[in-house]
Amino acid sequence: MSDYSINKLKSKYPLHQVIKGDFMDCIKRYDSENTFLFMDPPWSKAIYEENNKTFCDRAAYEYYEQILNIIPTLKSDWFLCSDIKEKEIKKIMSKSGYYIKDIMSKKKLMGGYIGTKVLSNKPFIRYNQSTLI
């Protein structure tokens, strides 16, 4: 929904379709057995309020609540990211019952390691890089 982001994406990926619309409408429109949804909603509304080039129209919890309400109906496979501590989303992902994994960065940013919690409808499988085509 950010005009700045849309223009950046269009210039960086001119052969791709970039649309502007509500994330829920996008999920519903493109949901299919041949679709993979990567969802990374705002982790903190306050961060978005500091930058006028971004878009965040609700609390982080509301984004996650809406996504977790629709995912049982999806045909798509999906992957959902959040802050590892789930601070502003009240551990809604940890309570969901889906496959979950914590990923820690090996590099520090602002004095600490960055952690991401990921949720999926499929189990996390580690592949040997040498076997990938």
Question: What's the helix and strand layout?
Answer:
Blueprint: H1 3-12, H2 23-30, E1 36-39, H3 45-49, H4 60-70, E2 77-83, E3 99-109, E4 112-120
Parallel strand pairs: 1-2
Antiparallel strand pairs: 2-4, 3-4
Structure description:
- This protein is α+β, with helices and mostly antiparallel strands and 133 residues long.
- It has one domain.
- The protein is built from four helices and four strands, in the order H-H-E-H-H-E-E-E.
- Strands 1-2-4-3 form a four-stranded mixed β-sheet, with no helix packed on it.
- The longest helix has 11 residues.
- It starts with a helix and ends in a 13-residue tail after the last strand.
- The mean pLDDT is 90.
Order of helices and strands, N to C?
HHEHHEEE
The overall number of domains is 1
Helix content: 25-40%
Mean pLDDT: 90
* Sheet having the most strands: 4 strands, mixed
Strand order of the largest sheet: 1-2-4-3
Strand content: 15-25%
Q: From the alpha carbons, calculate the radius of gyration and give it in angstroms.
A: 16 Å
Per DSSP E runs of 2 or more residues, the count of β-strands stands at 4
Low-confidence stretches: none
Q: Could you tell me how far the N terminus lies from the C terminus, measured between alpha carbons in angstroms? A: 36 Å
Strand-pairing-aware structural class: alpha+beta
Number of helices: 4
How does the overall form come out from the CA principal axes?
globular
